[in-house]
UniProtKB/TrEMBL annotation:
This is Acetylglutamate kinase. The keyword Nucleotide-binding does not apply. Its EC number is 2.7.2.8. Coiled coil: none annotated. GO terms for molecular function: acetylglutamate kinase activity. Keywords: Kinase, Transferase. InterPro entries: Zincin_1 (IPR010428), Zincin_1_sf (IPR038555). Pfam families: Zincin_1 (PF06262). The keyword Kinase applies.
Length: 139
C-alpha cells in the first residue's frame, strides 16, 4: 500500500520544532562527545546574518546550513580571555531547502550538520566527524 501525503496542508517546522529536533540529535550523540563539548551553545536561526555571509564570501543566504562560532578546543589556551561563549548555529531555512532537495530525513540532515559544526569546536577532521555521526545513527 502506498501512502501519498497531501502537501497542500503541510507546514514546515518552525524554530521551536527545530530546537527540539536539534536537542534530540544532540541527545543521540555519544556521551563522551557531549561531555567534552562543555558549555557549547546550540542556536537555531532562520538564516545566517549578512555579516556572516559576507565574512565567509557566501552570496546566497541559503548557501550555509550551519556554523561554528568560537575557538576550537585544540586551539584554546587557559590564558585566553573569553568574550563570547562557543556556539553552533543551525540555519532553518537553508536546512529546509537542503532537506527538500536531498531526499534525506530532516532529522538525519540536522544531525549531520550538528555533528559537523560541533566537530569544528573540537578541531576534528572530517573522518572523525563521520565516525561520530555514524555512532549517532539515523532518525
Amino acid at each position: 500500500m502506498t501512502f501519498a501525503m497531501d502537501w497542500r496542508y503541510a507546514v514546515a517546522p518552525g524554530l521551536a520544532e527545530f530546537e527540539e529536533m536539534a536537542a534530540i540529535a544532540w541527545d543521540r550523540l555519544p556521551d563522551a562527545f557531549r561531555s567534552r563539548a562543555g558549555d557549547l551553545i546550540i542556536r537555531i536561526e532562520d538564516y545566517p546574518t549578512d555579516e556572516v555571509l559576507d565574512a565567509l564570501g557566501i552570496d546566497d543566504s541559503l548557501g550555509l546550513l550551519g556554523l561554528y562560532h568560537g575557538v576550537s578546543l585544540d586551539r584554546k589556551s587557559v590564558l585566553d580571555v573569553l568574550s563570547q561563549p562557543d556556539m553552533v548555529f543551525l540555519y532553518r531555512r537553508p536546512l529546509l531547502d537542503e532537506w527538500a532537495e536531498s531526499g534525506e530525513t530532516l532529522g538525519d540532515l540536522i544531525t549531520h550538520v550538528l555533528v559537523h559544526e560541533v566537530g569544528h569546536h573540537f578541531g576534528f577532521s572530517d573522518d572523525d566527524m563521520a565516525r561520530i555521526e555514524a555512532a549517532a545513527g539515523g532518525s
